[in-house]
Amino acid sequence: EPEVTQTPSHQVTQMGQEVILRCVPISNHLYFYWYRQILGQKVEFLVSFYNNEISEKSEIFDDQFSVERPDGSNFTLKIRSTKLEDSAMYFCARARSANYGYTFGSGTRLTVV
Amino acid sequence: QKEVEQNSGPLSVPEGAIASLNCTYSDRVSQSFFWYRQYSGKSPELIMSIYSNGDKEDGRFTAQLNKASQYVSLLIRDSQPSDSATYLCAPYTGTASKLTFGTGTRLQVTL
Question: Could you give the 3-state DSSP secondary structure of residue A100?
Fold first, then answer.
């Protein structure tokens, strides 16, 4: 299947700035996810999005985070006021159906300085 | 107790040998299990899935599942240097639910 495209591949931002990470999944997929991976640590779940609504979110996904699918195709993760500890790889994932496993995008490396 | 436990390694095996990667999980309602491979700096890539007790083979990979023991493993036969990566185990508990990853086991295949 075609890859999930994420943009940008790398973003450097100053602490306190807002960033928007984008994911372009396959349009007929219903399940979308955001994960992050801090350097040297495990892949952590942030939020799942099903039928254009958040279906589950982790304790990491606090008020500074939001997700949208503004135009029915792109899927965005917004971090309102970035902190140094937000520096990580952010992965978008999608699933066509529950038991097919999830396909991850190529990731966005976010560096907060 | 951690939800998913894996030996972080590194597990070092010579080229051509069998690599055995293990994973235990705590959630008894887990229905399926996925093995992902992650090269350094890259995204996880799905390599195997298993839903039933027993073995499932796909090329050089064999996944083994024992739900009673809450244990899943991945065997890689004829290991190649290109298999050097971190292998992530992820139980799956139901429709649209998140995947919870272990820390992963780093595999090094030596020449």
Answer: helix
Q: How long, in residues, is chain A?
A: 113
* Preferred mutation among A34, A43, A57, A96 to probe B, highest tally of B CBs within 10 A: A43
CA distance A34 to A31: 11
Q: Classify burial at A32, counting beta carbons within 10 Å of its beta carbon; exposed 0-12, middle 13-18, buried 19 or more.
A: buried
- A71: Cβ contacts below 8 Å, ≥ 6 apart: none
Cβ density class B51-88: b for 16+ within 10 Å, e for less: eeeeeeeeeebbbbbeeeebebbbbbeebeeebbbbbb
* Partners of residue A33 in chain B, C-beta under 8 Å: 98-99
Digit-coded pLDDT (tens) for B10-59 = 999 999 999 999 999 887 777 788 999 999 999 999 999 998 899 999 99
